[in-house]
């Protein structure tokens, strides 16, 4: 697929006071992708984002939209362009004199394109999706930090924008809500196909939802590439930054992080090659997590995933390693195990989940079927970890279903 | 050469101050004109206008009545004892009415509104600025000037003359209370002289002043809040200094404007 840049920043320079915040930034943001901008605190990520939406004008360089120079646009064109954007502020920037409903309704009301009934319907819809329907009469000062973040998200998404800029949307949220926000961004991006730019410190979680990652350091983009490429980036500033921020445990599930898991997989590969000790992997996926998102809400979906991860860890031995492989996937590395034994592990896991009611603590959604699938593959010494995971991904079979 | 530089530097400093001041006045004027023009940009913001009329106007009624009554009473009292020496206490109605309609009404009303509504306008807009709420409006393609400043300008232009009229009426009755009810002046004399001495030009002059004060107060207060982020002080400290400046500058400008307008209206 050809990547077409929607927004291009060319040699953008910005000085605020005596401080040169952006020092020749070159960045391409592609249509329909989520681009994550990472970097140290105070490295100018938010300033960069404000240039994209036009809150700041660059001192030097150019910003292009669809190949057109923004500086050369007429005021009407700029307004039309701005209407395509939404921005989620780091500190939410909710209007403290308006209640939650009025805050979310404001961008729709001010555009005067919809009837009040339609505005009300859309706002209530969005509040429900973000689990905010019971606080619509409250004012921002009466809400917790997490709720404020969700209200800000609801306000940004209510206009169905084409480009959404998120300035640290998950800072200060608990792991479930943080993952709920990430899955919501991904879910909305898939459903509406908007182009997203997310400034974030959440490493590696942000890599699960982004197709492109750019790292800003000392006012310049020092890395731009896919999320897999950044893990292998050789530049010391990138490497140090990623390793410094990455936690050994996944925040939501408590299982090993992606990089720890990958290392374990490499260790097992080398044990296999040196001592011919077999091992297998099981790729477990909550197939319809996105549907859970839509039907029961993002918070419920993340709680379900956390419950699922608990079941998986309870069924593994201390020598096994399970780690979060993707936003809805867990990969289990089973040492000294052949494919048949790995299938036994799946059967046992399935039985435990059936008998303990996987989603016991979660309010059931009538008629909805929670589905988990598993792909099993035994490693052989000639293939690498990527081929092994791909093989497991191809042999997927649904092994657990729970219909309410 | 050194003497020349020393001599020049204070003159240059004065020149810089004058230039800064002129530039500031120009910014204030443009700020007002921008906000004023946007009042008429459809769709009209009736709801926000109504809320501001309630905030600036309705909520000031009590304090205006209170200050109006006591100002009238003091004028009645002082006027009575000044006039009684010359045996012309019958002129008390004229003295109180003219003082109120021409000067005290518009000026004191403006100062009371600055204290009650102007300071909170600055603080509210200032807090919106430092908490990025104004930026949020811009990202939603909502013009912050139209959203925040225009309704306040429109409401102030309506409320100032009405509150001034209220101040005048209550003040007149305050003068009656102290002059007639307490000190025994014939009420018929008091009201007859008040009625005969006040001409339409006095009332119009009072209203012109109150409209001019509305422009001054709302512009200074909104401007100080709107540009609070350009101050050297950040955050809450910046807002607090903006609020103090708004109150001081608008009070001083009200008095200066009053003097200038009086010279033209007399």
Description:
- The complex is a heterodimer of chains A (about 400) and B (about 270).
- Chain A has helices at about 45-55, 75-80, 100-110, 115-130, 145-155, 175-190, 205-210, 225-230, 235-245, 260-275, 290-295, 300-315, 340-355, 385-395; strands at about 5-15, 20-30, 35-40, 60-65, 70, 85-90, 165, 195-200, 210-215, 220-225, 280-285, 320-325, 330-335, 370-380, 395-404.
- In chain A, a hairpin with a 2-residue loop joins strand 1 and strand 2.
- Chain A has two domains: about 5-245, Rossmann fold, CATH 3.40.50.300; about 260-404, Reverse transcriptase/Diguanylate cyclase domain (Alpha-Beta Plaits).
- Chain A is of the alpha/beta class.
- The longest helix of chain A has 18 residues, at about 175-190.
- Chain B is mainly α and about 270 residues long.
- Chain B has one domain (about 45-265).
- Chain B has nine helices and no strands.
- The interface of A and B includes residues 110 and 159 of A.
Number of self-contained structural domains of chain A: 2
Distance between the termini of chain A: 40 Å
Assembly state? heterodimer
- Span between N and C termini of chain B? 51 Å
Assign the CATH superfamily of the largest domain in chain A.
P-loop containing nucleotide triphosphate hydrolases
CATH top level assignment of the largest domain in chain A: Alpha Beta
Note the total helix count of chain B: 9
Report the strand count of chain B: 0
The fraction of residues assigned to DSSP E strands of chain A is 25-35%
Rg from alpha-carbon coordinates of chain B = 22 Å
């Amino acid at each position: 697929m050809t990547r077409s840049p929607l927004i291009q920043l060319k040699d953008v320079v910005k000085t605020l006071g005596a401080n040169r915040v952006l020092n020749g930034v070159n960045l391409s943001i592609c249509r329909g992708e989520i681009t994550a901008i990472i970097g140290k605190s105070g490295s100018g990520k938010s300033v960069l984002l404000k240039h994209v939406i036009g809150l700041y004008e660059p001192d030097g360089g150019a910003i292009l939209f669809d190949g057109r120079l923004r500086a050369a646009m007429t005021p009407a064109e700029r307004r039309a362009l701005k209407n395509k954007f939404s921005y989620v502020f780091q500190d939410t920037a909710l209007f403290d004199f308006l209640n939650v409903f009025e805050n979310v309704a404001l961008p729709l009301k001010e555009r005067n394109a919809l009837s009040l009934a339609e505005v009300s319907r859309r706002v209530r819809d969005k509040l429900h999706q973000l689990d905010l329907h019971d606080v619509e009469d409250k004012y921002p000062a009466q809400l917790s930090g997490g709720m404020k973040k969700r209200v800000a998200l609801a306000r940004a998404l209510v206009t169905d924008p084409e480009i959404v800029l998120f300035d640290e949307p998950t800072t200060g949220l608990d792991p479930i809500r943080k993952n709920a926000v990430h899955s919501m961004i991904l879910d909305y991006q898939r459903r509406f196909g908007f182009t997203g730019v997310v400034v974030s410190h959440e490493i590696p979680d942000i890599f699960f939802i982004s197709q492109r990652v750019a790292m800003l350091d000392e006012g310049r983009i020092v890395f731009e590439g896919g999320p897999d490429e950044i893990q292998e980036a050789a530049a010391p500033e990138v490497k140090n930054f990623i390793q410094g921020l990455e936690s050994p445990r996944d925040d939501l599930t408590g299982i090993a992080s992606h990089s720890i898991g990958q290392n374990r997989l490499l260790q097992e590969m080398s044990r296999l090659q040196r001592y011919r000790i077999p091992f297998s992997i099981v790729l477990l996926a909550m197939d319809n997590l996105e549907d859970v998102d839509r039907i029961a809400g993002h918070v419920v979906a993340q709680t379900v995933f956390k419950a699922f991860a608990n079941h998986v860890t309870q069924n593994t031995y201390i020598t096994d390693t399970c780690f979060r492989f993707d936003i809805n996937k867990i990969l289990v590395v089973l040492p000294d195990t052949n494919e048949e034994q790995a299938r036994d592990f799946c059967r046992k896991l399935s039985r435990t989940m059936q008998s303990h009611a996987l989603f016991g603590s979660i309010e059931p959604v009538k008629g909805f079927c929670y589905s988990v699938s598993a792909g099993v593959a035994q490693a052989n010494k000639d293939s690498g970890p990527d081929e092994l995971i791909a093989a497991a991904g191809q042999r997927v079979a649904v092994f657990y279903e729970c219909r309410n | 050469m050194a003497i020349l530089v020393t001599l020049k530097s204070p003159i240059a400093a004065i020149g810089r101050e004058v230039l800064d001041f002129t530039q500031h006045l120009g910014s204030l004027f443009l700020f007002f004109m921008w906000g004023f023009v946007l009042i008429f940009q459809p769709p009209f913001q009736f709801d926000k206008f109504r809320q501001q009329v309630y905030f600036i106007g309705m909520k000031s009624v009590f304090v205006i009545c209170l200050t109006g009554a006591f100002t009238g009473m003091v004028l009645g009292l002082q006027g009575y004892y000044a006039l009684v020496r010359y045996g012309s206490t019958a002129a008390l109605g004229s003295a109180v009415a003219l003082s109120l309609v021409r000067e005290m009404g518009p000026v004191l009303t403006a100062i009371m509104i600055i204290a009650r509504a102007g300071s909170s306008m600055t603080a509210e807009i200032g807090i919106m600025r430092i908490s990025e709420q104004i930026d949020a409006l811009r990202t939603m393609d909502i013009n912050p000037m139209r959203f925040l400043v225009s309704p306040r300008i429109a409401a102030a232009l309506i409320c100032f003359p009405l509150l001034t009229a209220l101040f005048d009426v209550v003040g007149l009755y305050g003068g009656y209370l102290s002059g007639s009810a307490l000190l025994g002046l014939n009420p018929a004399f008091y009201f007859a002289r008040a009625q005969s001495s006040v001409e339409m030009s006095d009332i119009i002059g009072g209203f012109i002043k109150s409209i001019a004060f509305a422009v001054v107060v709302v512009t200074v207060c909104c401007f100080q809040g709107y540009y609070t982020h350009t101050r050297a002080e950040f955050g809450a400290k910046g807002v607090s200094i903006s609020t103090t400046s708004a109150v001081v500058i608008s009070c001083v400008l009200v008095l200066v404007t009053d003097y200038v307008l009086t010279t033209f209206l007399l």
